[in-house]
Specification:
Strand order of the largest sheet: 7-6-5-4-3-2-1-8-9
Number of strands: 9
Distance between the termini: 40 Å
Bound molecules: iron/sulfur cluster, FE2/S2 (inorganic) cluster
Helix content: 25-40%
Number of helices: 13
Largest sheet: 9 strands, mixed
Radius of gyration: 20 Å
Order of helices and strands: EHEHEHEHHEHEHHEEEHHHHH
């Protein structure tokens, strides 16, 4: 292949185990069991292969990566391989001791997810009592240690009113970046869609709040706004385009172009236990299936945005239309765009199906 892109990031899903039970978790409904997880040696090999492939960032993720006792060893291996290391964590379990081990191992950056600012509300969404306190304590330690911190706030209809306070919290903590991340409807968020979907008014208000806060905190706090596709007229380039920027490795070693790709029927995903990462990236059927623009049907085929959004999200086309090859219904040019709008305005429910092993 002549124009094979060089991947930028490796999303290393070290485990699906997690003490929290967030109903919008992007992990699959069928979570991988502990005994199927890759061992330390295999992960170290993957990290070295990722660096040789030109990858610059590794996101140590999960589930909750802190449940792996070898996390410091893996962080150190990534550091020695020359990768920038980002820990994506709930911070529940990021004790003084664990943090100091990770720092010594070469950890560069921590991203802590929060559910909100009100501990009772936030802990109830996370299905974990005391979680908010642990997160704030860990965030303070990270900033005091001089390490880069991102706060990732997942936004939905039941915490949107807290957005100004969330921005204030990120500022007070001394975070360098805040991700205002509306729920993306993959994994556990699909069965919880009606309970999580904001109203259009909530979404527009959030957009305004972010615009104003960006101007206020320019130069001190970077604020990213990850939009919900349901209120959009054009889709995002999911993962920066299929097979273009990121490799996801699941806890059991499958290499995927995105975290929800395993839901696509009839696709074969190579495993890092059996094939080198470079081989998988360049030659596997899965990474080549939707890479580039050749696979695109009309109206994507010939569209001026084809190499901007790369056709949006295949997993979204599957989950909403039952067809992974269809135009992403987030796009107003899709014949099925109305379906997306219907789902966005469907009546709300107020019960969650919390994430847990065994569905
Ligand atoms: Fe993107 Fe396809 Fe819509 Fe064009 S038609 S904007 S390529 S999803
Ligand atoms: Fe799979 Fe978007 S999550 S392509």
């Amino acid at each position: 292949m002549t124009d094979l892109p060089v991947p930028i990031g490796l999303l290393a899903e070290l485990t699906h185990r997690c003490p929290l039970g967030c109903p919008y978790c992007s992990n699959p409904i069928e979570l991988t069991r502990t005994n199927a997880e890759l061992d330390t040696k295999t992960w170290i090999n993957v990290l070295n292969e990722a660096a040789s492939l030109g990858i610059m960032h590794v996101h140590l993720s999960g589930g909750e990566p802190l449940v792996r006792p070898d996390l410091a060893e893996l962080t150190n291996a990534a550091h020695l391989a020359g990768l920038y290391t980002n820990l994506i964590t709930s911070a529940v379990g990021l004790t003084v001791q664990r943090f100091s081990e990770l720092r010594a191992a070469g950890l560069d950056h921590v991203q802590i997810s929060i559910q909100g600012v009100d501990p009772a509300r936030a802990d109830s969404v996370a299905h974990f009592k005391g979680g908010t306190r642990a997160k704030l304590d860990a965030a303070k330690r990270i900033v005091e240690a001089g390490m880069a911190l991102t706060i990732n706030a997942v936004m939905h209809r039941n915490n949107m009113d807290e957005l100004p306070a969330i921005i204030g919290l990120a500022e007070n903590l001394g975070a360098g970046r805040l991700e205002v991340a509306h729920v993306q409807y993959h994994g556990w968020a699909i069965p919880n869609r009606a309970a999580l979907m904001p109203t259009r008014e909530q979404f527009l208000e959030a957009e305004q709040i972010v615009i104003e806060a960006r101007a206020r905190f320019e130069g001190t706090l970077v604020i990213d706004h990850v939009m919900p596709d349901y209120f959009a007229e054009r889709p995002k380039a999911c993962m920066g385009g299929w097979g273009r920027q990121v490799i996801v490795v699941t806890p059991d070693g499958r290499a995927l172009p995105c975290h929800a790709a395993a839901t696509l029927p009839g696709m074969i995903f190579d495993n890092v236990r059996k094939k080198p990462l470079a081989d998988i990236w360049g030659h596997s059927e899965a990474f080549n299936r939707f890479r580039g623009t050749q696979w695109m049907p009309k109206p994507c085929n010939g569209c001026e945005r084809a190499e901007i959004d790369w056709g949006g999200c295949r997993c979204q086309a599957l989950s909403i239309l039952g067809d992974a090859t269809a135009t992403d219904p987030a796009c107003a040019l899709s014949p099925n765009h109305a379906r997306m709008k219907e789902l966005a305005s469907a009546s709300a429910t107020n019960t969650y199906r919390f994430r847990r092993i065994g569905g």
